[in-house]
Structure formats: structure tokens, C-alpha cells
Amino acid sequence: MRAFVADSTLVETECRERLKQIPASTRRRLSSYAKVIMTAILELSERHPQLKETPVVLATRHGDLHRTEKLLRELVRGEVLSPTQFVLSVNNAVLGQYSMAADNRQAMTTLSAGEQTYPLGWLEAVSQVQSETRQVLLVYADEVPPAVYSGQVHSPVRSFAHAVLLDRENGQKLILDRLVEKESQLQEDVWLVANGVQQMLDSCSGKVVKDYNGVRWSWHVA
């Protein structure tokens, strides 16, 4: 599949100065996970004002897992859950917060697909650009999982958000490829893959390959 990348950024920490653009009433409710996502989107918005009228695809394997874990612990203790915290724990909550803060009334899509969430997020966004709209903002975001989940999952090794503005006609031409393989190479952490893709886009050359139990995904600029 082919699309053009108009711009992209990868951030690992929130930017308080950028977050001041968000109304204080909304900003107070943002988790660390949501703040990193907002920081990435706001960085691109400064260079591309049209993002306020651009559809968004948010891909996340874990979502706001730290907020969810806190709610689960409250349930175990028999406490009454805060309706606000419960609403903000769902995967599309941060897109709702962004939509209201930026007055963006375009389509907002969220997806979670286990360890293949990163490439499938790309697949969804590229598909939308090819068939539905001229531009789509793709955001992949995850935090390091809480310690209680260390026995089940170890990815990502760093908290981050990767925001990519895809365009139907303008920018760097990118090819997304999927191939079924009988054998797979050693799997890399999603942060390493996203960082590799960002470096590839920055240098305008190269190729990134990621294996997922017999499925090989690759990104390269043409």
C-alpha cells in the first residue's frame, strides 16, 4: 500500500508550553498518557493548521492502562468508582478530549490489535487516505505498562507517541508492505520500530522491517 507522509514527530514526554493551548478545565483531566498524545498532535498542528479539520486514527495496544489499573485496584478494595475517571479510561476518551479542545469534528477512529497494533494502525490510516479522505493523522501511543503486568507484557520499553500526517498526493512517498513468512526473525520492541520509522522519515531513506509470528511488515520510502 502506498501513501505520502506530509510530516511526522515522535515524542516521549509532554511539553507543558504546548499543553497550555488546551483549556485548563480539559488539561486538568489529562493523564500522562493523554498529555504525550496531545503534545505530539499539537506539535504537528503548529506546522499544519489544517489538522483541526483532519480525521484522526489512534492506535494503542494498552490505552490509558495506568488509569485503568488504578480503577481496578479501587474495585478490589470495594470502593465506588469515579464516573469521570471511568469515562476517561476508555480508548477513545483522549480523542474526545482532543476533538473538543481543537473543535475538530472530523472522524475519530481508535484501534487495538495486540502486538500488531502499530502496523495495523498504519494499515487503517493508509486505507482511509486511499479511499475516504485526502489527509489522515495517524497517532500510535503507549506507556510502559504498570509493574503488576510485568509477567504478561514488557512492551513498550519507553512511553511515547508517534504522530504521522498522511496525505493522498503530497509528501514523502511511503510503501507499507505485509508478507506472510514461514519463519520469523527476532521481534523488536514497538518503540524501536516506531523510532526506526521516524528516523527513516527524517533521513528520507531506508527501510524498517518488523516480524510478528510469521507476518512480516515493512515500511520504506520510495
From TrEMBL:
- Short name of any one Pfam family annotated for the protein: Ketoacyl-synt_2
Please identify the protein, giving its name as recorded.
Answer: Beta-ketoacyl synthase N-terminal domain-like protein
The protein's superkingdom reads Bacteria
Residues covered by the Beta-ketoacyl synthase-like N-terminal domain: 17-219
